[in-house]
Amino acid sequence: MLNAFHARSICELGPKERVKIDSLLAYSDKLLLGLNNGSLRVYHVESPETPDVTITPIRTIEKFARGSIAALGCIKEASILISLSDSAISIFDLESFALQQTIAKTKGASIFALTTNFEKDNNTGIPGIVSRLAVGVKKRLLLYSWHDAGIREGKDISLSGNVRSLTWASERKIVAGLGSGGFVVVDIQTGAVEDVVPPVVNGAAAVAGKGAVEGAAPAEGGQWGWGTMGMGYMGMGMGWGSKPLSTRLKGDELLLVKDTTTLFIDSNGKAIPEKAHIPWPHTPDAIAYSYPYLISLHNSKQHLEVRNPATQSLLQTIQLAGVSTIHVPSPNAALLHAGKLFYVCSPTQVWRVGAVDYEDQIKQLIDMEKLDEAISVLEQLESVLLESKEERIKEVQMLKAQSLFEKRKYRESMELFANVEAPPERVIRLFPKIIAGNLSIIGEDKDDESEVEGSGSAHDTTGTPENGIAEHGVAEANGGGSVSAGSIREGETGTAAHDTTATGPATGEESAGEESKIPTNGHVIDAAPVIASLRKIVGDDASSIRSKKLVDDDAMSTRGSIRGSIRPPRPPIKQSPSILEERELRRAVNELTVYLGNSRLILTKFIEKLQSEQKHASRPSAAGRSSGADSPIRAPFGDSYFGRNGSTESTVDPLEKALQTAKLVHTTLFRAYMYTKPSLVGSLVRQPNLCDPEVVNERLKETGRFHDLVDFFGGKKLHREALTLLKQFGEAEEEDDRAPALHGPDRTVRYLQSLDSSHLDLIFEFAEWPLKAEPELGMEVFLTDSENAESLPRGKVLDYLSRLDRKLAIKYLEHLINAMRDMTPEFHTTLAGLYLEHIRGTKWTDASEKEDWKEKMLDFLRESKQYRSEKVLGWLPREDPDFYEARAIVLSNMGHHKAALEIYVFKLQDQAKAEEYCIRIHTLLPPPTDPAEAPSSTTVFHLLLSLYLRPQPPYPPTPQLDHALGILSRHGARIEPSEALSLIPEDMKIARLEEYFQRQIRHANSRVTENMVVAQLRKGEMWKKEEALVGLKGKKVVIGESRMCPVCHKRLGRSVVSVFPDGVVVHYGCGQGREE
User: Fold this and answer.
1) CA within 13 Å, CB half, 163
2) How far is CA 33 from CA 12, 21, 43, 64, 110, in A?
3) Predicted local distance difference test score (pLDDT) of residue 204
């Protein structure tokens, strides 16, 4: 187990003393013990921050209290000591220990809690130190505060149960554990009380949770679900016998405990669902937080348990006989102790529990192969407490990735390798030669350090803990990592040492040997030797990891230092990793391809940046301009890997090293694809790559993978050979088993799409058979949204497609006009002609399909303005009803509105379309510049009205009065009244024109009103101009005999002059020149 803390006995009551320790308090360099007879003992702690601690008695205050001193606390900022004795709170001076007052209101108190914070004054807004005291008196919570050394009484809050525990959640809120088993959050400002509500689970989950609470083992993997905890949370309010416990963790998190059930909450009392249940085998009697660990005290087992609050794992068990009380000095009262030590005591003995150096703790976790715990602890520790924290986390993560690989968790392993940017060699060498080539270490034994290039001396960390620990009575059990705490007494007469025996974890723990046994296909494989050999793979220049054989060859452990930079390892190897089975190897290689793909992308970007950097360096002027703007190039696998760590001894060219690594990655990726995913080889060899040519050629020829060979031809620009091969397999009647992906035109089309206009002859030559086999697919060569397709000469492509099939040419022209927005008149005219030719030249069996083509042609003729109307009109037949509307649209584009309306009115007899046509044309006409200007008699509505009322031969002479009146009523304002009335038959009744006249009168009145408004506005504008003119004419200019003309510089005298608005006076003749 982890050796995170060492317990040292610092005080022990003599066997003849008939007193017991009921409470203790540590602050600064003082230690106070409250005894059951009411006495208070004060000790001075020498060097409290070092392992070599001694205490010296200062004084003993008899009759400090009438009865037992149940609890002690201090507010150092106010220099007061608070004592809970005789069920009341008493306040003493912290220096003289003189009684200042006993708060009578707290009679019956059972617990209190203190906190000190910086708070802003509500009135002044000035921050100050405020200390607060919360006292639990049966079902009441009493609040007090100290401001500027003065005590103030706060609220008296009633609760639903007796107060059993108190923990400050923040400066404004406190969590109270009640005797009924529940917890509440109290707002000390408003007095609001809010119950802590645990997550709700269904009945089935609750039943499962009951078993968990009563001691059932956790689910597989040690994870307790919400269903497991649900029954226990429901029981929080059912009056369980154990005391409710709570403590504040790091940040705003708090932990609530009732029996073996736990709940993590935030400072507002809201449950944190992602936090798992802590698998306590026994109910804790007290809990505390000593950064960064959770400490629990178990009276029945006489030990302390140290857990990681992030993973809930038991890391250490410290056996202490009779231990009953735990005290962690508050960071607010003694920053010196925060996270470094705490005190525990039994009725007769006090232990000081000090933390082991954090670096040693991390080493221990790595040695025990508890890599997840090591990562978790590293992440929780502040950066100031460790050197190179980020590098250490990365190194441990790489160790974890290797361990995951040997445990057959390949996906997790490769994802972790990728996340930490492990060097490719470190990953690739774990695979056999069929994947890694000569880099593989599978099945090979190598010498220890003789074959390691550039290896330095490794740090030997396999020794026992420092001797100072043993000298002070603390022993570490071999192999288990558990701790036994001895006790010493210093500063008093005699020394008594009481050594206790360390024990392992009660439940939920696995030994190193158990962790190394991996279930595979129903059998258990001892992977400890494999894991040990993987530790050696890390290499000395990565993290100075070494392996040593123990007495038992099968029991191997690794201890290492995670100092130093991360570099690609060349480690000493004494044992090879196990050879993977076929199925397992395929799984591993599948995950390797993901890692290699990511490394390939990173290396490509890095190489591009290095090449760009070298280009700038070769041009001094450009380099000078870009040196300040470009950010430094970040090395993907660490600067030391590419010789960029600033060392003067490194002679590695970063670009050369990057190209070598890229060659290894690309070639290994090719091998991996060939082994597990041959279909992906084409995507690799088709693109620019750095694969070893000999390896690629050999493998493609051996396996007869023609589709990959095509990709290889494409990468080497051998397009005719590739297209010939594609045509050979594509046109075959039956699919060839050697290259099923090449059957059909799909592969040929995709290849042709990759060619630009410089290969136009090849495109025309090899695109013909795909267009005949699958026209839709074949057209993608010319229609795809790519630069290559857009660069093809459109006229040549159109001629080529017209010779093959008319519908292909139509589809290509539609793409050019609709998608590419090509406005070439020849293309628009050709498309109109192809539409007409297709409609007339096709023998239609489906009338709806013909109508669709007609509608498509009409939409094109209506929307396009680029085709040549005269030519298209000449192509359209005059007497074919299928093309009447097409002729009307073309005539409209030519401006022949009357001819177009004749088609709508007499040939199509569609009055709605005729009216719609007039509205559209009228909307397109520019509005008159003068609002008073009357509509022209030649408006399109006038033409429609004349066709309705006075049709001309060869059309029937019968007027269409109803349609004409409808036009007059709806659009009469757009027709000159005199012209409209002249067209109306004389025998028509006036009543039928009533609506028309009403509209016309309203329109005329509005025009008159508008003209009057305009006239008044113009008159006002004229008055302004006249006023300005009068002002200008009223100006006077005095001309003296000496006044000179500024233009000719002669005297003005009695000559005719011109006066300008700015007051300048010149000769009349000079003024004309000045104006010009």
Assistant:
1) 28
2) 11, 7, 8, 11, 19
3) 39
Q: What is the mean pLDDT of residues 417-429?
A: 88
Contact 322, 302 (CB under 8 A): yes
DSSP designation for 106? G
Classify residue 979 by burial, with Cβ atoms within 10 Å: 0-12, 13-18, 19+.
middle
Three-class SS state of 878: coil
Confidence of residue 218 (pLDDT cuts 50, 70, 90): very low
Q: Are 486 and 321 spatial neighbours (Cβ–Cβ below 8 Å)? A: no
Residue 866 burial class via C-beta count within 10 angstroms: exposed 0-12, middle 13-18, buried 19 and up: middle
Residue 800 to residue 795: CA distance in whole angstroms: 9
Say what the pLDDT of residue 1015 is. 92
Q: Are 425 and 439 within 8 A, CB to CB?
A: yes
Cross-strand bridge partners of residue 702:
none
Range ranked top by mean pLDDT from 403-407, 450-454, 487-491, 947-951: 403-407
Who has greater pLDDT, 645 or 193? 193
Tell me, yes or no, if the pTM score tops 0.85: no
CA distance 12 to 490: 9
Residue linked to tokens 């960064």: 292
Q: Report the candidate in 439, 432, 433, 401 with the shortest Cα–Cα distance to residue 595.
A: 401
Mapped onto helix, strand or coil, the DSSP state of residue 285 is: coil
Burial of 673 (0-12, 13-18, 19+ CB in 10 A): buried
Q: Tell how far CA 487 is from the center of its chain.
A: 52
pLDDT in tens, 110-137: 999 999 888 887 777 788 889 999 999 9
**pLDDT for 507-537, tens place per residue?**
333 333 333 333 333 333 343 333 333 333 3
Is pLDDT of 696 > 70?
A: yes
337: tokens are 């102790």
Whose CA is closest to 46, among 38, 33, 37, 55? Answer: 55
* Cα–Cα separations (whole angstroms), residue 839 to 806, 825, 844, 846: 11, 21, 9, 12
> Where would I find the beta strands (DSSP E) of 912-1060?
1057-1059
